[in-house]
Amino acid sequence: MGLHPVRRERRTRPSFDDREPFAQTLESIRQNVATPGLSPKTLCRMLGVSRSRLYRLFEDRGGVARDIQRRRLQAALARLHDPAEPRTIARIAEDLGFPDRSGFSRAFKAEFGLSPSAARGRR
Questions:
Q1: pLDDT tens across 25-55, in order?
Q2: Is 64 left (phi over 0), alpha (psi -120 to 50) or beta?
Q3: Residues 6 or more apart from 50 whose CB is under 8 A from it?
Q4: Model pTM?
């Protein structure tokens, strides 16, 4: 008697592989951009995907960690331009997951070519 393959039932809930993975990942980043603990590792857990698969999805964008940082910086720029935003620059940076103001300022200037203070002055 030969071996027969095990018949698997089709899952009713789609898995990560059954959906558009890049769009799903971008949406997860967008929804969690202000969560300080957002990282490639937490994304893998949230989405149930391997780290290597996640990194392959973001190869042409400079990597998933870079994409998260870029989105956080864009959110910071929007908040700094908002005249109704009362929080300090340090607080905005902290709320978006940057551990210290100096690191935030360096990343901000590298991304936009001006300091966070200068961006706030351009409201």
A1: 889 999 999 888 899 999 999 888 899 999 9
A2: alpha
A3: 44
A4: 0.77
Alpha-carbon distance values, 85 to 33, 88, 96, 113 (Å): 18, 9, 14, 22
Whole-angstrom distance, CA of residue 95 vs CA of residue 101: 11
Structural Rg of the chain based on CA atoms: 20
Q: Which residues does 16 contact at the CB level (< 8 Å), separation at least 6?
A: 24, 47, 48, 49
Cβ–Cβ under 8 Å, residues 69 and 107 = yes
Distance CA 37, CA 43 (A): 10
The CA–CA distances, whole Å, from 87 to 30, 74, 115 equal 21, 16, 16
> Please, how many CA atoms are within 13 Å of residue 35, restricted to the half-sphere of its CB?
11
